C-alpha cells in the first residue's frame, strides 16, 4: 500500500513533467502552422477520445469486479459535471494563453514564467487554509532560483508574450488547486475526460470566433497534435490528477516544475542543444529543491513509526488531505 502511494505521489508527477518537457518541441513547432485555439481544439479532442476509452475500460472492469457496488453514488454525475467545468475552464485559459505566448517570447523565458506556479500555488493555498512547512518554502525558493539559471539567458525584459505566460501561470495554479479540491470527490480518469471535453469545446468556440482554421495546416501538424493530444494531455494530465488524489498540492507543483529540466535535457539529447554550466547549475538547484521537499516532517515520521507524539499527530491531522471517496 505504501509503495503504491509513493509511486502515485512522486513517480506520477515526475513522469508527467517528463512528458510535458519532451512535448515542448511539438508545441513550439505547431505555432508555425496553426493558431492557439485551433491547435488546442484539435489537441484536446484527441485527448478526450483517448481518456473516454480509458474511462469506459476502467468502469467496465469495476462493474465486473464489484457488480452493483460499482454504481455511482447519488449526485455523482453532477459533481463530475461541476469538476469538469471548473478544471476545464482553468485549463482552457492556461493552455491557450501558453500557446499564444509562445508566439512572441523565447522558450526559456516561457518555461521560467509558466513554472512560477510553484510560488503561486502555496501563496493561494494560504488563503485556502492549507499549511505549508518551512522546508517546502525553502524548496520553492531553491526551485525558482534553479528555474532562473536554467531558463533565463539573455536578461529579463518584459514582452507581450511574457505577460501572456504570467497569466498562463496563474491559470495553471488555479487548475492545480481545483484538482486538489475535486480529486477526492470524483474518479480521476473521468475527471480528466470531462475537463478535456470542456477544453476542446471552449477552444473550438474560440477557433471559430477569432481564427481561420485550415485543414491543410492541421494536416501538417497531425503528428505533433497526436503526440501532444495523447501523451502530453491524455496521459500526463491524468497522471497529475491521480497524483493529487491525496498529496500536498505544493509538493506536486514542485515535482511538475521539473518539466523545465526535462525540456532542457531533451533539447540537449535530441536536438543537439548545448547546455552551459549555468544551466547545469540550475538543474542541480531544482533537483535539490525536489529532494528537500521529500524529507518528511517530524509529524509524518511519528505517524509512520507509530509514535504517540501528541503534538506531531495533531499537526499531521491538521494538514491531512480529505480521504478519497469511492465512486
Automatic annotation (TrEMBL):
Keywords: Cell membrane, Membrane, Transmembrane, Transmembrane helix. The chain crosses the membrane at residues 12-29, 41-60, 80-98, 110-129, 136-157, 163-182, 189-210, 222-239, 251-271. It is found in: Cell membrane. InterPro entries: Diverse_Substrate_Transporter, EamA_dom, EmrE-like. SUPFAM superfamilies: Multidrug resistance efflux transporter EmrE (SSF103481). Residues 14-150, 161-292 form the EamA domain. Pfam families: EamA. It is a multi-pass membrane protein. Gene3D superfamilies: 1.10.3730.20. Residues 303-327 are annotated as: Disordered. One of its GO terms (cellular component) is plasma membrane. Its main location: membrane. This is EamA domain-containing protein. It comes from bioreactor metagenome.
Amino acid at each position: 500500500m505504501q509503495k503504491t502511494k509513493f509511486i502515485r505521489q512522486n513517480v506520477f508527477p515526475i513522469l508527467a513533467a517528463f512528458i510535458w518537457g519532451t512535448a515542448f518541441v511539438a508545441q513550439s513547432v505547431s505555432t508555425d502552422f496553426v493558431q492557439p485555439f485551433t491547435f488546442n481544439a484539435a489537441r484536446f479532442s484527441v485527448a478526450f477520445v483517448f481518456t473516454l476509452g480509458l474511462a469506459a475500460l476502467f468502469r467496465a472492469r469495476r462493474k465486473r469486479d464489484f457488480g452493483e457496488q460499482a454504481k455511482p453514488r447519488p449526485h455523482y454525475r453532477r459533481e463530475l459535471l461541476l469538476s469538469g467545468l471548473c478544471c476545464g475552464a482553468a485549463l482552457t485559459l492556461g493552455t491557450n494563453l501558453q500557446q499564444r505566448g509562445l508566439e512572441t517570447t523565447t522558450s526559456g523565458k516561457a518555461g521560467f514564467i509558466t513554472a512560477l506556479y510553484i510560488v503561486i500555488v502555496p501563496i493561494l493555498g494560504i488563503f485556502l487554509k492549507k499549511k505549508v512547512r518551512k522546508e517546502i518554502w525553502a524548496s520553492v525558493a531553491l526551485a525558482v532560483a534553479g528555474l532562473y539559471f536554467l531558463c533565463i539567458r539573455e536578461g529579463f525584459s518584459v514582452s507581450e508574450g511574457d505577460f501572456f505566460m504570467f497569466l498562463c501561470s496563474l491559470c495553471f495554479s488555479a487548475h492545480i488547486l481545483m484538482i486538489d479540491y475535486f480529486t477526492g470527490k470524483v474518479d480521476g480518469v473521468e475527471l480528466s475526460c470531462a475537463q478535456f471535453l470542456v477544453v476542446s469545446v471552449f477552444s473550438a468556440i474560440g477557433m471559430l470566433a477569432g481564427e481561420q482554421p485550415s485543414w491543410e495546416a492541421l494536416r501538417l501538424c497531425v503528428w505533433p497534435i497526436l503526440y501532444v493530444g495523447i501523451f502530453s494531455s491524455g496521459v500526463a494530465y491524468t497522471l497529475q490528477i491521480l497524483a493529487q488524489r491525496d498529496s500536498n498540492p505544493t509538493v506536486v507543483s514542485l515535482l511538475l516544475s521539473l518539466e523545465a529540466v526535462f525540456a532542457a535535457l531533451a533539447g540537449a539529447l535530441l536536438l543537439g542543444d548545448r547546455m552551459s554550466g549555468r544551466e547545469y547549475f540550475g538543474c542541480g538547484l531544482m533537483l535539490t529543491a525536489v529532494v528537500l521537499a521529500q524529507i518528511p516532517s517530524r509529524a509524518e515520521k511519528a505517524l509512520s513509526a507509530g509514535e504517540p507524539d501528541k503534538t506531531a499527530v495533531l499537526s499531521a491531522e491538521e494538514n491531512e488531505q480529505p480521504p478519497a471517496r469511492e465512486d
